[in-house]
Automatic annotation (TrEMBL):
UniProt-recorded name of the protein: Sugar phosphate/phosphate translocator
Subcellular location, principal: membrane
Membrane topology, as annotated: Multi-pass membrane protein
Pfam families for this protein: TPT
Organism whose genome encodes this protein: Heracleum sosnowskyi
Amino acid sequence: MMLSGKNMRRSHDIFGTYIYLYIDNICTISGNCSSTFVVSLSVSYLTVTAGGLMPGNKLACSSVSPDMNNSTSTLGVDTMVNRQLLLTYLYLLFYVTLSSGVIFYNKWVLSPKYFNFPFPITLTMIHMGFSGAVAFFLIRVLKVVSPVKMTFEIYATCVIPISAFFASSLWFGNTAYLFISVAFIQMLKALMPVATFLMAVICGTDTLRCDVFLNMLLVSVGVVVSSYGEIHFNVVGTLYQFTGIFAEALRLVLTQVLLQKKGLTLNPITSLYYIAPCSFVFLFVPWYLLEQPEMEVSQIQFNFWIFFSNSFAALALNFSIFLVIGRTGAVTIRVAGVLKDWLLIALSTVIFPESTITTLNIIGYAIALCGVVMYNYLKVKDVHAAQLPLDSVAERAVKGLMEKSSDLYASDNGNKSSSLGRSDSGPDTNNDEEAPLISSRILHLGRSQHSNQKSSP
């Protein structure tokens, strides 16, 4: 029996929806926490494939003519998937290059041996002022995105505390460049999962477990070994970096607790629009007390293009993280961050000859990285245990869609009211508790198909 062009397109849409729902559930489970390298690559590949099969996208799967054979359609899908994968890899390369470049750029600007601008608070304030001005221009002038509904209560209880810790993390992190090398800073950043876990336990968003505690202990031992092997160890720089790490960890936990409790979702532009000006105000106080008395205009080497390009690179880094997460997922960008750290450690010895890496540095960092990987594995395991098995989720999605199709068939035979009643009260309530992300998509697809059938002759 031959299918018409409309029925063929409809079958492609249904098939694409099955694949999209199945893969989207995988990405949702894996994208909410860190993972190992293998899991991250799987998620990134499945996400790209899902983008190619999602109904409504102008890809080869949905635009295949009924007269084309299977080999031609398969070739078209493979070509499109290869293009999407290539674009994903380019985004990852763009993120790694920008992230590494901003770190090297900040080190070069602040170091007395190079550009000689030893004012980290001033540099951070320039970044915040530039980012806030660009965000204001994009929202208020170009109207690229709309600002969220912000009340004084939300701003006072959420934005101000988050901005304070955000400004502190940038201030202390940039100050560390004056005392310790880039390579050693990246090794100390392996403590970020430890700091985040401790802050989460203190704030009540996580529980203290023996297996996670042992992994955090392994990470800490690795960092201690790496610090012991550091030739140019500096106590002041190490304390600045530790303080910046814990301030960033507390900012992450507060963002989860405060913003999610209020139901706010901020994209990079709206985040900078609200947080950057507030962070600028917080930085003004320590700048006035610590750096302003030491600044003499006649001795400052101020180059407009240097600071403009440095601020623009920092702003572009925020947008690149958003693009990479949107195309791959949070898992992939964290794995890319680990690879970036190894790249930074290796390149820092070439760009900055004073950075010396010892064997004990590498051994300690490798031990810490093993603890981070094990911690990521435990988090992924916990998330999978808290979710439905993927097969049952996919089966429920398909079953719900088939029930909706049968209801639509019944509605065409004169039982429209009863079929719509079953679809709104039955599958929706069952799926809301177990798979809320799937239920809304199924109902949306069912309603769109129903409207298409009513409008078609």
